[in-house]
Amino acid sequence: MKTLQILIAIIFTAGFHVKAQKAGVNAAQVLGSYYEVKNALVRSDNSLTAEKASALAKLAADFDTNISQADRAPAIKAIISRLVADAQSVGATKDLNRQRSGFAALSADIYSLAKTLPLSDKPIYQAYCPMKKGYWLSAEPAIKNPYYGAAMLTCGKVSETINP
């Protein structure tokens, strides 16, 4: 009987731990996953872009909006919903031009999230490409253009710095 009680306690604890880990998806992880999509586009790697975008969609879907400020939860949920849909769209194709077009919407989603709640303890740089008329976020101020890759790697400028 004691063995059964111990076994039940272990199973309950393990189940609780798994649930706690899943609920632990945070904004910094979502931002990091977005950066992986951006970096794959910088390399013009359509397969890696699709893989990273699909991973971002799954991660964002598990983002726990309850961990954020209650007054902002509805706005955050709406942003996350758009982010998941846009990441799925980028991940669903291997056409690099379509991925880059979808990335513009994905970047707008991440920007909205960054303006709604802190995503990082480091500055986030919003860059702008005048040729594409599109924005993206980066962890560093150096321009590495995801819309054109090697063809126009340094085209663009930092338009805003989002401080923690």
Features:
single chain; 5 helices; Four Helix Bundle (Hemerythrin (Met), subunit A); 164 residues; mainly alpha
Write the layout of secondary structure elements.
Elements: H1 2-23, H2 27-42, H3 46-61, H4 73-91, H5 96-116, E1 124-129, E2 134-138, E3 157-162
Short description:
With 164 residues, the protein is mostly helical. It is built from five helices and three strands; from the N terminus they run H-H-H-H-H-E-E-E.
Could you characterize what this model shows?
The chain is mainly alpha-helical and 164 residues long. The protein has a single domain, classed as Four Helix Bundle (Hemerythrin (Met), subunit A), CATH 1.20.120. It has helices at residues 2-23, 27-42, 46-61, 73-91, 96-116; strands at 124-129, 134-138, 157-162. Strands 2-1-3 form a 3-stranded antiparallel β-sheet, with helices on one face. Helix 2 runs antiparallel to helix 3 (46-61), helix 2 (27-42) runs antiparallel to helix 5 and helix 4 packs antiparallel against helix 5.
